[in-house]
């Protein structure tokens, strides 16, 4: 089992300069080969050749000697990331590979664990080429370290993520229960058992303060020290809002995976839903995709099962008692309805969750 352990680190001034050099070198290599790919693709439908770029990397280093400031494995990983992004583009999960901007404050690069050179020591982490870096995280790393990803956030915080293999994860006890989940805006998750978990709407609540901080930033002269202070203040508050949302999703996904063995959900087309101008901000704040992502990887960790049903299944418009379909329920403002055939009164969301569960369990028995 592979698992990553993320730690906040506190580099000194010299270590920050070394990291900045690595960020710049890996960004340059990524943009250089992306530019080559785009130019050749225009002319002769060129397919990105990962090995060809690796062979060319040595000549690129000779042409630009300052690239030697970065570890070779970091430059190698930069090309690998580009290869992965291009493959994602081909399967339609990415619009197009984009150039990395030096003006963007979020940066990262990879370091391979060659000869066990990366060491976690509790109060410090040793990274080759940088040395001992202070950390205050008490999370104990497990398994064998494969590589480390060093990153700097927009709020000027530094982190290192240790990717490990052969990590033993304690399984949750089997409950023998199954559940259907309906995702919504008012209530984030509605279960087929009738439980509702409210959507906290963290961004909506934080919007007035974000607007105030943005106005304060706009009054500062770009490039000045006061501008940088205001930018970091805004970035850290936005990061705080994001952390609140992620924490809520982790607690909720842990509860679901721990309580149920089979989890049935809709295969939502979130990208298409986000094109709605009136709902896009609320959908982004709800983070359906992140919640589903957490459910899927945690179910693999703990030997549970997630089943996705057809996104076009009419879960909200079908009576779970008699199977009658009411096509007049497309209006989302209708939260309760009575089936004209069996006279059962339904809560729209709970009824949908029950239908999702039934439909999901059918796919197992087929």
Describe the protein's architecture and organization.
It is a single chain. The protein is of the alpha+beta class and 366 residues long. It contains nine helices and 14 strands. The radius of gyration is 25 Å and the shape is globular. The strands form three sheets. The protein has a seven-stranded antiparallel sheet. It has a five-stranded mixed sheet with strand order 10-9-8-11-12. It has helices at residues 13-44, 50-63, 72-90, 202-218, 225-259, 270-273, 280-286, 288-301, 348-365; strands at 3-10, 107-112, 119-120, 124-127, 131-135, 144-152, 158-165, 178-183, 187-191, 196-198, 262-266, 305-309, 336-338, 345-347. The longest helix is centred in the middle third of the chain and has 35 residues, at 225-259. It folds into two domains: 3-165, no CATH class; 178-365, no CATH class. Helix 4 runs antiparallel to helix 5.
